[in-house]
């Protein structure tokens, strides 16, 4: 009899879960419709997924000699939109609908578009510097210009007069500034601070991190999937460590950074080869160390190398633990190009083959020579949140990572929203924030607010975030930090759960655990079976039931999740006694006798209740007919949006 009831319950749940498949099909149809609409529009913009179209677009822009900075910035916005579309497709398209070859093609197109955009910014900078006299400052006689839009800010200064007393400058329109060493103050040099509000410097995988793909499976498949995960966690972790998220083969770009793209399959196959190459490198290194040195004996040389490697590793930023917030600042010293000269009605300028050329600082001199540092002040953007002082780091193009060495005397001014620091040379820098400082959550609640509407509230360590859900979209309702509303420019705008996750993270409010977050946050890891099925069934019931955090969740062990539930059909105030506690392991649900106020955790069943094979049927035992009707009528788009947000926040594992 129990077996018959279990089969009947699973069959009924399976019928409800068809709504997830309907949502997937709807998204597939939307992608196809968008592609068709783009084809019909004939607006001249390329389809970034069609290789021929995107290559033609890039070739035409490369050949376009117009380097006017305003035109470059306008075209740049189009390029950024194309990159955004490709990133969205990489994150949103199910693996069954995108081949490895297509994914690799999209990644390569993203990197080529990024590289082309930066080349054009350099061309626009050179064009501005050739006409430096047009931007001459009346007080100093030097060129100074600030040109900006919503994506990028150019701050350019040219040393036309070469006077030591004008070695520092503040770009008042951007609140950026610098103080140069005396040797540069008398040189034919220009300084550019290029602030991009996006990050095209960090590895591509950082921006294409998706919520772990946990597909909606049939009951038996999901059970087996979870069992496999539970049996082989170490193997999975080792595999994750070995396989790069976005695999790479090196190619040199014009801005001397190495970009990377090969297919996932090629990357996996190359692991063995990489290990062999690493072993060969170690052997070669050993051979080199065995050669006697005229300066130091081999053991001392080896010790010095080990210390240098240790120092290098210490200053390398772990991008699983930190992420850039507020964009990237490209700070360069440049050779001042030949200036435009007027002859009657003619404008003449000497053309150089090399294009924009970096001014070497510090100059190539004996190693023991000392050079003054460059002092930089950056105004911090007001549309992002920094929880405490961020980490200032410079990009290392050779190692392809962010580093903290080479930067000193860092001073943050919270009131002015600025940071001042010294650099040994000119670097590309960014401000990085700890990825997990808002974890674990202090509390969370999901409650229905209307027909196919709900409100998800997540109370994190430093912030409280409210997200409204309506149909297939969601909206940032409020972000509160230290009892003040912040990010008002982002609230009140409807978007997809995927886009909301991206914009919140870019704004510094990262409340979304990553694949490796369990290594950095002290929480008990929950079994995938219990966690995923709980999110699915919470989403299915989310139109009529409210769910919230229980303090007993961490006491219940890895295999079970515990949370508070109550029927919620009206927006009336609710007492704590209206909540009940439920425990679920993915295959068995039960209502607990204990409350949040109980002194100890107990798995004892509530009186007059019994076990069920699904959370949905457990809730059904105590629900009104109106609530169950509301659950059955809920839109598949609303259910999918709730499920996506629960998967993104993983409230049952990180609170």
From TrEMBL:
GO cellular component, one term: axoneme
Source superkingdom: Eukaryota
Domain CASC1 C-terminal: 400-568
Biased composition (Basic and acidic residues): 238-259
Positions of the IC97/Casc1 N-terminal domain: 2-165
Residues covered by region (Disordered): 224-259
GO molecular function, a single term: beta-tubulin binding
Signal peptide: none
Similarity remark: Belongs to the DNAI7 family.
Official protein name in the record: Dynein axonemal intermediate chain 7
Gene name per UniProt: Casc1
């Amino acid at each position: 009899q129990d077996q018959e009831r279990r089969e009947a319950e699973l069959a009924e749940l399976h019928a409800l879960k068809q709504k997830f498949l309907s949502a997937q099909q709807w998204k597939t149809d939307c992608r196809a419709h968008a592609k068709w609409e783009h084809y019909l529009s004939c607006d001249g913009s390329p389809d970034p997924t069609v290789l021929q179209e995107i290559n033609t677009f890039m070739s035409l822009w490369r050949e376009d000699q117009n380097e006017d900075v305003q035109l470059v910035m306008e075209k740049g916005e189009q390029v950024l939109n194309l990159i955004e579309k490709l990133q969205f497709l990489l994150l949103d398209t199910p693996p069954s609908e995108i081949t490895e070859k297509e994914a690799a093609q999209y990644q390569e197109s993203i990197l080529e578009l990024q590289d082309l955009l930066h080349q054009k910014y350099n061309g626009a900078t050179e064009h501005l510097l050739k006409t430096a006299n047009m931007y001459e400052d009346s007080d100093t006689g030097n060129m100074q210009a600030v040109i900006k839009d919503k994506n990028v800010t150019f701050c350019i200064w040219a040393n036309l007069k070469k006077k030591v007393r004008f070695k520092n400058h503040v770009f008042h329109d951007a609140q950026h500034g610098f103080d140069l060493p005396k040797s540069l103050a008398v040189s034919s040099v220009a300084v550019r601070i290029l602030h991009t509000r996006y990050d095209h410097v960090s590895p591509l995988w950082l921006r294409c991190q998706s919520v772990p793909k946990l597909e909606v499976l049939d009951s038996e498949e999901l059970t087996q999937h979870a069992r496999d995960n539970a049996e082989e966690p170490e193997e999975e972790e080792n595999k994750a460590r070995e396989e790069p998220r976005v695999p790479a083969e090196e190619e040199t770009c014009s801005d001397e950074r190495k970009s990377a793209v090969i297919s996932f399959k090629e990357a996996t196959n190359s692991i063995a080869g990489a290990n062999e190459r690493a072993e060969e490198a170690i052997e070669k290194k050993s051979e080199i160390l065995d050669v006697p040195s005229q300066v130091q004996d081999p053991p001392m040389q080896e010790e010095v190398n080990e210390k240098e490697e240790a120092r290098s590793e210490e200053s390398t930023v772990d991008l699983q633990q930190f992420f850039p917030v507020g964009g990237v600042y490209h700070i360069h010293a440049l050779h001042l190009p030949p200036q435009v000269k007027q002859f009657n009605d003619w404008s003449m300028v000497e053309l150089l083959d090399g294009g924009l050329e970096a001014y070497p600082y510090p100059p190539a001199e004996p190693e023991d020579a000392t050079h003054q540092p460059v002092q930089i002040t950056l105004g911090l953007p007001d549309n992002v949140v920094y929880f405490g002082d961020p980490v200032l780091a410079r990009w290392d193009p050779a190692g392809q990572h962010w580093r903290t060495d080479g930067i000193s005397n860092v001073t943050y001014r919270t009131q002015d929203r600025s940071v001042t620091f010294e650099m040994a040379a000119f670097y590309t820098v960014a401000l990085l924030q700890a990825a997990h400082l808002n974890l674990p959550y202090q509390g969370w609640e999901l409650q229905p607010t209307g027909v196919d509407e709900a409100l998800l509230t997540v109370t994190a360590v430093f912030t409280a975030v409210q997200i409204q859900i309506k149909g297939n979209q969601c909206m940032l309702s409020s972000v509160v930090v230290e009892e003040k509303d912040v990010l008002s420019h982002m609230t009140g705008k409807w978007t997809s759960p995927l886009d909301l996750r991206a914009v919140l993270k870019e704004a510094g409010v990262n409340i979304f655990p990553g694949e490796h977050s369990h290594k950095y946050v002290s929480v008990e890891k929950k079994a995938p079976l219990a966690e995923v099925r709980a999110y699915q069934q919470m989403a299915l019931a989310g139109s009529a039931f409210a769910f919230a955090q229980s303090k007993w969740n961490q006491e219940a062990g890895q295999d079970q999740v515990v949370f508070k539930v109550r029927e919620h059909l009206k927006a009336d105030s609710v007492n704590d006694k209206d909540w009940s506690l439920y425990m679920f392991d993915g295959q068995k649900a039960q209502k607990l006798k204990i409350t949040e106020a109980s002194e100890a955790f107990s798995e004892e069943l509530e009186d007059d209740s019994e076990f069920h094979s699904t959370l949905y049927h457990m809730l059904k035992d105590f629900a009104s007919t109106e609530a169950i009707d509301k659950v059955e009528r809920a839109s598949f788009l609303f259910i999918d949006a709730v499920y996506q947000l629960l998967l993104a926040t993983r409230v049952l594992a990180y609170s």
